[in-house]
Specification:
Layout (H helix, E strand, L loop, with lengths): L2 H31 L4 H8 L3 H8 L7 H10 L4 H5 L18 E3 L5 E5 L9 E8 L4 E4 L7 E8 L1 E6 L2 E6 L3 E5 L4 E6 L4 E8 L7
Antiparallel strand pairs: 1-2, 2-3, 3-10, 4-9, 5-8, 5-10, 6-7, 6-9
């Protein structure tokens, strides 16, 4: 093998090590975000616990089949698992025109999606603005998901499983959102809040 061939192989090997290292960090970050132990991820993915541990420590280069099994268990695309990590500081700006808006069925409550697209599979957050009497009815999210509503203006109430709790400006409500739930703007004034949804983060029995 010539010098150029050896140099090319070294470049490929270095690239594979960097990619594997980033993947290990990503898998470990997602596993911890979902509150999964190595044993639980092994059970859900069908990948041996020892192999997952080696991947997270960047001690092995997994096959594509292994990566696919882990991505399925962690509810993330293969591209998301393989994405290179960039630890350099950055500032990313989104304009008002680029911010998607969700509207409740009654047309009185608007949710601006202000969360980062890269975290949408496990973390979502919204700027909530509502007319008086606005109601947002939501279906169940993934099991173990938790939502936090922090009231900035007006007064809101949340109903989950027949239980109702209210909050005024400066107060927050945290609740299970892995079952049907409703958010209402109560009183005779408009309301505003920040809503954060943590998907599959803390399985509660």
């Amino acid at each position: 093998m010539g010098v150029e061939g050896k140099e090319r192989n070294r470049e490929l090997e270095t690239g594979a090590q960097v990619l594997s290292g980033n993947m290990g960090k990503t898998i470990q970050r997602l596993r911890k975000a979902y509150n999964l132990s190595l044993s639980e991820l092994a059970e859900q993915s069908g990948v041996a616990k020892s192999i997952i541990s080696q991947i997270e420590r960047n001690e092995t280069n997994p096959t594509l089949a292994t990566i696919w099994r882990l991505s399925q268990a962690l509810d993330v695309s293969i591209e998301g698992v393989l994405a290179s990590g960039d630890e350099e500081p950055f500032i990313e700006k989104s304009s008002k025109a680029d911010t998607p808006i969700l509207v409740s069925e009654d047309g009185k409550m608007r949710l601006a999606i202000i969360g980062w697209i890269k975290t949408i599979e496990w973390l979502q957050w919204y700027d909530v603005q509502s007319e008086a009497g606005g109601v947002l009815d939501s279906d169940s999210h993934q099991r173990g998901s938790v939502e936090c509503l922090s009231v900035l203006e007006g007064e809101f109430e949340v109903e989950v499983g027949g239980v109702v709790q209210q909050a005024k400006a400066g107060e927050s409500l945290r609740y299970r959102c892995d079952r049907p739930h409703s958010v209402r703007c109560i009183g005779d004034r408009p309301g505003r809040a920040t809503m954060v949804c943590i998907l599959k983060a803390a399985v509660m029995d």
